[in-house]
Please model this.
Amino acid sequence: MSHKHKHHEQHEQQRQNNTGGIIAIMLTIVVTGGLVYLGLSNKPASSASKATEDSSMEGHHSGASGPVTDINTLVGQPAPDFQLTDHSGKTYALSQLKGKKIVLFFNEGLMCYPACWNQIASLGADARFKGEDIVALSVVVDPTKDWNDAIEKMPELAVATVVHDTGGAVSSMYGMLKTASSMHYGQLPGHSYVVIDKEGIVRHVYDDPNMAIHNDALAAEVAKI
Model:
């Protein structure tokens, strides 16, 4: 074989090797790119995007979304005055209730079913909160007329004294729109209690984000005054 021919064969072999190497590199890039793409498509959302997703999926029972009011500052102070009306048109005013122990249950009302409804009905049925020297008022911001539908759905509500703080002025005055249990922060109360003595002084407050029935603890606090 001539030197020229042998050199040609070596050159051709080198060209083929280079071509094969380039193809191998290209295949590696394609496969790697595909794996990266699959990895990214299956990768969990970043913390930022996850936070956005979680935020968008939050329901109306999301809890307080801003600074929480310390309702404990009410204790030992004269209770803010109020004048509220029940669904039958009867008015309850703090000034007229002097001489009675008062339990106030501030809650979301119609939208908080069944937790708030159960507590309202339980207060209404509990003999410990009935009598000449005590009254339990469940304070809601719903319009008076809307409670007829609620009573039809849960007749037990009819025995409770539900007073309507339409507009939320009294709830705001007591600091109940920005508690830890406030589900509509700044707009509606959550699930909070105030106990007032016969002289109109606040003796106990409690905010319950768990929205449980609080009768026994309330009765214990009432017994102290």
